[in-house]
Amino acid sequence: MASTSSRLVLLMALLGPNTVAGSLGVPVMTIGVKRYTHSGNRGFAFSLFYTLMNVAALTQGVLMDFFRIRWKHGFDVPAFADRSLLNSGNRLFLASGCVTSMVGLWLTFLLSDPAADDDAAVYARVPAVLEAEAGLAQAGRGERPRSVEPAAKDAPSAPSESKWQKLVTAAGNVALSREFIKYIVMCVITVNLKSVFKYLDAMLPKYQLRAFGCDAPIGMIYSINPFTIVFLVPIIGAMTTGFQHFDMIHFGSYLSALSPFWLVIWPAEWAAAMFVLTLSLGEAVWSPRWYDYSMGVAPDGKEGMFTALASAPLFAAMLPTGMLSGYLLDRFCPDNGQCSDVSAGRSLLTHAQATAPSPSLGGGECRGPIMWTTVALLTLTSPLLILVTQKWIRPAPSADKVQDRTPGLGTGVDFNEADPLLVVDNLYQSAAMPRHSEGR
Question: Global pTM?
Fold first, then answer.
């Protein structure tokens, strides 16, 4: 992508290898963190992993603006074309990502195989322990303990169809449960709330370039989000431990939903920064508690399905949000190629802003307030629907069982970006180990 000048090649790279790599990124890294840690330091390792991801998001925004604005023409080598790899800041920024990826690949060959996990050894002994306990129980009742015959061990397993039938039956029972229906309703209600983060990624940068010029600090403004999350999530989590998860989601959703109104009232660069800041404040309040809520409404033994669905609203919102973002931009803030014209510079922006009633491009008016009003009204439906339906979807007081067994888990990691399988694993460890100690 950094070196090509063909749009077809660029689209193939974006929709092909880049998509596959993106889907494998966080899950593979979380598996690596799990395998190279043990139960004693795993919680700290994942907290550090989450912090480093947000620090990376923070620094990449600053670096992107440096390459785009301060180093716009790259090395400015006369022998190469203006848009070549060495003479373009944007291309050099992409190339720097390729270099760091190659360094990471080289480092993987220097790593040794991880040691056997202590927890895996414990779980491997569980069947033998259960069998021994069953034998002791039979002996206590005066029965002769039954042993497993070698022939039984070598007997063929049950047909795979029966396993699938059991799986389908279990999934059907969960899908028809009242708790699952509550959770699905909550997921659907919050789709528009989580969609605002896709507008932050897909629509805000293009709006800034088209409304405020090619030198708009889109990276610096975007970096407000990870900066706020890194510092506020632990503080808010510690200050609000006495509040119920549902209430934190409800109140925090209002902050995130009202954030686009900054750009509705004031179509200015500082308003874009306030939009991201307000959105981040709301995210720090409600986003960590979403995991605790999803676990709270899940019945014991069914947490896996509920946790796997915790990220479903965000993924479900990606496609329609992207389509709506493109439509709103084309309809209310179209692109006339200003930023693709190297010779245009700031003079075109100055002339356009002086002759248009609102921030505009060369000849094309950018009606930002109308566009962001649409986004704000769509996002505001989520907290209002939570308010209307809270008597039905609010979990019972007993649903706080997870918070008692996993103190601080929800406030340490933003589980909207976490791997669902990893969350289930952490939940199993934190929930199962106290039960073993109680048995002793």
Answer: 0.67
Domain architecture of the chain: domains with CATH: 116-148 (no CATH), 177-439 (1.20.1250.20)
| Chain segment 331-355, per-residue pLDDT in tens | 999 987 767 644 333 433 444 444 4
Determine what percent of the chain is predicted with pLDDT higher than 70. Answer: 65
CA 256/CA 282 separation, integer angstroms = 5
| DSSP β-bridge partners for residue 360 | 365
What is the spatial distance between Cα 283 and Cα 304, in angstroms, rounded to a whole number?
24
Residue type, 294: S
Q: Which amino acid is at 278?
A: T
Classify burial at 336, counting beta carbons within 10 Å of its beta carbon; exposed 0-12, middle 13-18, buried 19 or more: middle
Residue 364 in contact with residue 174, Cβ under 8 Å?
no
pLDDT at 351: 40
Average pLDDT rounded to a whole number, residues 39-54: 74
Radius of gyration of the chain (CA): 26
pLDDT in tens, 102-135: 898 898 888 887 766 555 554 444 454 445 445 5
* Short-list 232, 191, 144, 200, CA closest to 320: 191
* Distance in angstroms (rounded) separating the CA atoms of residues 333 and 119: 55
Exposure of 154 in the CB half-sphere (CA atoms within 13 A):
3
Rounded mean pLDDT of the chain?
73
Please provide the distance, in angstroms rounded to a whole number, between the alpha carbons at the two ends of the chain.
59
Q: Is 360 helix (H, G, I), strand (E, B) or coil?
A: strand
Lookup: tokens for 32:
């690596």
- Supply the DSSP symbol for 156: P
Encode 90-125: b = buried (16+ Cβ within 10 Å), e = exposed.
ebbbbbeeeeeeeeeeeeeeeeeeeeebebeeeeee
Query: Mean pLDDT over residues 12-38, rounded?
Result: 78
Q: Give the CB-side neighbour count of residue 94, counting CA atoms within 13 A.
A: 15
- Complete DSSP assignment for 97-139: HHHHHHHHHHHHTTPPPPPPPHHHHHHHTHHHHHHHHHHHHHH
